[in-house]
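Annex B. Sample input.
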Amino acid sequence: MAQNIFLIKMNNKCFIVFLFVLLAIYQIGWSQNNPLSKKISITITNQPVEKALQIISKAGNINFSYNSDIIPLDSIVSFSFNQKETLEILNYMFHNKYFYETTGQHIIIQKKKNINNKAGTEKTKIIIIGKVVEFDSGKKIYNASVYNINGNESVLSDTNGNFSITILQKEEYVSLAINKQFYEDTIIIKPVKTELTTIALRPKFILEPIAPKESTVSFGYVVDQSDLVQMLVKSNMMIHANNISYNKQRPAQISLFPFIGSNYKLSGTIVNKVSLNVVSGYSYGVAGVEIGGVLNINRKNITGVQVGGFGNITGNATKGLQVAGFFNHNFGKVAGVQIAGFYNNVCDTVEGAQMAGFANITTKSVHGIQVAGFFNYAKKVNGVQIGVVNIADTISGISIGVFNIIKKGFHQLTLYTDEMGSINYNISLGTNKLYTTIGLTSQPFSDLKSWGILYGFGSQLLTLKTFNININLTENYLNIGKIWDKDQSQLYKLSADFNFKISKHFLLFTGPSFNIFRYSKERTDLTDYPENYLFAQLNSTIEKKSIYKEWFGVSLGSKYRF
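Annex B, continued. Sample output.
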């Protein structure tokens, strides 16, 4: 009982530590992205508030939005700060009379409520009707995102640029953000009234692009083009996500499906600290923990832990632990550990470990280890691949498997005979450090004709201009005196090949070997097998069902390296 109590206490402590780490991760990410946390150095002497805000804006590369009726823009201020957060500077300048909302790099200045004034504490439903047009031309803008900064209400403008948004509001002023891809972000702050509002968006000034070396397609756009994502996520959510170039950060969200959740239609623009998706969810990113019953869809980064019952789709970098029952599909880099029941697919680099029941596919490099039940692929590997089939362009490390196909690696065909008079045909693939060998063997000149299948691995220990040495360990499954023998005999061979290069691709070799031959006691016809030795038999061991023979031998043949 005491032991159980101790374990419970330890588990609680581990859980608390785990939460603390997640909070730290989230806080670091929040501080780096929040404009109120930017540290700036600034000196202002006898300047009006309006001018002071312009100077702060330029120094911090941030934008201010406010209603001029609630801010004394003509008031004269003087102050000097060295590497202070924007929030501290604003609180000093405004004497703590305002509070601030952030949206991307916008800081929205709002007046604090008088706590003694009970008016306006109840939410009121208001309707704001408006039109979104282009600033110079007056052209109507279709599918612009209009949303409440202090809530989750959002709409898209129609083909005539018109919109109507219903908001539950208890503040004296409402803050609306209007975003459209390829246009400048706009925020308006207006008194709570039902009236027609015309909003003019300025097109973004885009320089003539220089042809990039690599594709610069938006990560989020790539995720949205997935057939599975398009089936689960509504088109208006994707439009909002593409219109809004910045993201909000929220402590938590819960969703049943991408279109049914606490972040509503704006879920594709929000980074969550804790994300719980009962079936599936859709977000901009996660900085903490995300758990999905079936599928997690994130348009950009994951930092922390992500667990999907069926799968995870991530648009950009993943840092931490990613686990899925069936698949992980990442369009960006992975730094950490990636585990999937069936396959992992990364369209970039991996630093850490990839483990999958069937396959790991990484289009660029892997710095670490790939382990798969069947297949591993990476363009470049700096580490280890373990699987039945391993494929890479180059590898600085080793591949362990039945077939190791390295484009810029070790490729060799071997034809040779040995002290038993057998004829052997082998192919070796991998790297100089470690390659695998598969081959066929036959004894056409023996009284008991035989054939077999050989498998093994080897390494090149010495490499000179015209001479090198290979060490090989192989196992040969032999069918002796029969086309197919249910109780196959085995020949284990440890050999050293002394290779003499005669041209760019051709080598001649010879070398000694140590052999162990195992056969069934029931095969009395194999008592004198093999029939010929260059060297005397060293030892013969009889066990319950098998007999083992040992001897030294020699090999002689040619190799073709390609």
